[in-house]
Design a protein that fits this description.
Blueprint: H1 3-13, H2 23-32, H3 40-58, H4 64-78, E1 82-83, H5 96-102, E2 104-105, H6 107-120, E3 125-128, E4 135-138, E5 146-149, E6 154-156, H7 158-169, H8 185-202, H9 206-219, H10 224-236, H11 240-253, H12 260-276, H13 285-294, E7 302-305, E8 311-314
Parallel strand pairs: 1-2
Antiparallel strand pairs: 3-4, 4-5, 5-6, 7-8
Amino acid sequence: MTPAEARDAFTRLLQTPDPELDLAEAALLIAAEEYPDLRPAVYLNQIARMGTELKQRIRAEVEPGRVVEMANTYLFEELHFKGNREEYYDPRNSFLNEVLDRRVGIPITLAVLYVAIGERAGLPVRGVGMPGHFLVKYAPATSGEIFIDAFNGRTLTREECAKMLNEMYGGEVKMRPALLEPSTKRQILSRILNNLKSLYLSRGDLARALSASDRIMLTDPHLTSEWRDRGMIHFQMHHDAEALKDFTRYLAMRPEPEDAPRVKQLRGQLISRVNGGLRHARLDADDVREFRELRIGFSDHRRRRTQAGRIDEEHQPGLADGRDRRRDQRVVP
């Protein structure tokens, strides 16, 4: 499958109503642009077999705690899926094929796999985009909810989720019910792509960052800040016409954002260059600074310290209400 074929397949799949969208297939199509030899059907069959095995193990079990315990034992103890603490920022952690092959990932990809296997086993599981750490929610209609932290292979109560959030953000982000509501599948895909975009930007790989941004726009063209973010990538790549288009759209969608003066200034430079037929100019010092500052909005890439003192990170496109957050006024993906 060529990258173009993978993009076309991803675009077609996104036409599916969200409840029926196959999250695992979409995640594999994201990976297929990076892995031309990837055959999604092979991995989907593998996931299906895991789902069948889990379903057979659960059988008639109905007690929620026991069901989750059995699922966790199968995935984390027998199949050995776990969080990749040693190489957290390896882009391979964001590709579902690599997670299946290597048995390691980050919170969101491990959660996607958990949901995919759980759905095939008939379990009511959904992804939950809690800020800073993606979770899984098991919520049967007849009883209470259980949250699963797939990265650490454990279950959590709502109170424990609130404690985790407080530890990650030092009280800056307050827990509220909306933060533990299920994410749509498109939101999950957008968050995976934001992770990749942030990683690629940290490595100076603008072409791959642009590819990720383009696909984020496919998941939701109404993500206002993404028009600005993609415009900044185009600007850095000297794609003047494309950057001008994205900045113009951004300002039309959000007429007076906090960064409006600088975006308007950059847009004015682009208009002059495009109309004047000038050669692409290199970014001056202010442009470079602004590019770095605006990259803060590319992902919620927040450093957090656990009680044990370990530092790890989880990327996401923003809080559940869609607002961007700044991380120490720096971008250090």
